[in-house]
Amino acid sequence: MSNKVLMKLKGITRTYLMGEVTVDALKETSLDIYEGELLVILGPSGSGKSTLLNIMGGMDLPSTGEVFFDGENLSRAAEGQLTAYRRQEVGFVFQFYNLIPDLTAGENVELAAGLVEGPLSVTEMLKEVGLATRIDHFPSQLSGGEQQRVAIARAAVKKPRLLLCDEPTGALDHLTGKLMLSLLQKVNREQGSTVVIVTHNTPISAMAQRIVRMSSGRISEIIENTSPLSPERIDW
Ligand SMILES: Nc1ncnc2c1ncn2[C@@H]1O[C@H](COP(=O)(O)OP(=O)(O)OP(=O)(O)O)[C@@H](O)[C@H]1O
After folding, report:
1. According to CATH, what is the number of the domain 35-63+78-233?
2. Pocket (CB within 6 angstroms of ligand 1)
């Protein structure tokens, strides 16, 4: 982890208007994310974790406040700039994989590789996640854990500067979940991608360099962890 701030969230809020009801999903939140760090965001259901992650990924904009990526103000960016940011700088891993069902594992990864200049090799990437022999298989022919490996390969093949993961182990058994976390840690360490993992599973935070706790739409605590564990050594 360097001292360089990759992303700066400055006083952001996110409000949803539901008819007569206003939901404050995020209340006045500020956070700096450092280049190369592995950050875990913890918090109970409804505390604003996904809202925060979606804003980081340029999938949503704050109602007020500003978001900077490498000094560029995303909250003032035009739609085209925001799309370019999502495609070129960010990799996403979701709880339910979100692979394109009509494309094979290889094609899913290829599609992402095609979005950036100088991606990693698709076959190498699938080999890296242990799926070299499944390149021509469709998502429906793969287990949940295998689909999540494809999703990680799809995100990592772009060598994204920011890899955002929303409950990446949420739909998987314990052992498979650990394997996914190990892969994410590897991408962080070997590719240098900044990795942000959202989870409600407290023990997972032992792998992070910093842990952000959220509660009722606010950051309630930021903890530094000087000795992050490898996921194999974590139990939940
Ligand atoms: N599109 C939306 N419209 C209205 N309210 C929303 C919307 N998205 C989120 N919210 C509300 O904002 C709050 C924060 O939601 P968010 O999904 O960020 O929480 P979370 O911590 O990720 O929860 P979970 O762990 O259950 O996914 C919740 O009260 C939620 O109902």
Report:
1. 3.40.50.300
2. 16, 18, 23, 25, 43, 45-51, 200
pLDDT band at 236 (very low <50, low <70, confident <90, very high): confident
Give the residue-averaged pLDDT of 188-217. Answer: 96
Residue 23 bridge partners (DSSP)? 16
Residues sharing a CB contact under 8 Å with residue 165, sequence separation 6 or more, in sequence order: 92, 93, 94, 184, 195, 196, 197, 198
Q: In whole angstroms, how far apart are CA 144 and each of 104, 132, 209? A: 15, 17, 28
What token pair was written down for 8? 């700066």
Report ipTM for this prediction: 0.95
User: Measured between alpha carbons, how far is 168 from 152 in angstroms, rounded to an integer?
Assistant: 9
Each residue's pLDDT tens digit, 7-33: 999 999 999 998 999 999 999 999 999
Query: Distance, CA 22 to ligand 1 centroid (Å)?
Result: 12
Confidence (pTM): 0.95
196-217 as b/e: b if 16+ CB within 10 A: bbbbeeeebbbbbbbbbbbeeb
Ligand 1 mutation pick, 49, 55, 96, 166, max ligand atoms within 8 A of CB: 49
Neighbouring C-beta atoms of residue 75, cutoff 10 Å: 17
Residue 201: what residue type? N
Q: Which residues contact 43 (CB under 8 A, 6 or more apart)?
A: 49, 200, 213, 214, 215
